Amino acid sequence: MPIGGARGPKPQPHKPRSRHRTDEVAEWTYLPPEGCPDPPPDPPKGRAWSDHEVEHWNELWSSPVAEAWDEQMSGLVAAYVIAVSATLTGRISAQLVGETRQLANDLLLTPGAMARARYRIGEPPTSGHGASLHSLPVGA
């Protein structure tokens, strides 16, 4: 083995999990910045929802990232709304903070989670350098 030569495998930016991928090569899904036009589903039954919780529920389902959800996500959205509400009313614990953070990631509500899932909010740039871009249609 030559001394001072490159070690490790050769970079392969065309592979999906390569750390050498660039945004020009990566596939992104673009979410409409105006948000989801569909009416929000009703909050799950089984508990009394405060006005603030219903407002938060409707805001989340009207957000751009709601385009990536389907109605099966309503349980996770409900758990997130309840956890945030409990945090804001002072019923807080380390476990609740951790659960709220995890739910936010699962629902793609954090920039890091959106980046890992390859979602962006906004219009896709013009495709160049062989980039593969796709956008969710409004109301998808």
How would you characterize this protein structure?
- With 140 residues, the protein is mainly alpha-helical.
- Helix content is 33%, strand content 7%.
- The chain has one domain (28-135).
- The chain has helices at 51-62, 74-88, 94-106, 111-116, and strands at residues 28-31, 119-121, 133-135.
- A three-stranded parallel beta sheet has the order 2-1-3.
- The radius of gyration is 20 Å and the shape is flat.
End-to-end CA span: 55 Å
Order of helices and strands: EHHHHEE
Spatial sequence of strands, sheet with the most strands: 2-1-3
| Cα gyration radius (Å) | 20 Å
Please provide the count of β strands: 3
Largest β sheet strand count, sense and barrel closure: 3 strands, parallel
Shape: flat
Region (Disordered): 1-25
InterPro entries: Terminase_7 (IPR057972)
Pfam families: Terminase_7 (PF25673)
Keywords:
single chain, flat, mainly alpha, 140 residues, 3-stranded parallel β-sheet
Structure, briefly:
This protein has 4 helices and 3 strands; from the N terminus they run βααααββ. The chain has helices spanning 51-62, 74-88, 94-106, 111-116, and strands at residues 28-31, 119-121, 133-135. A 3-stranded parallel beta sheet has the order 2-1-3.
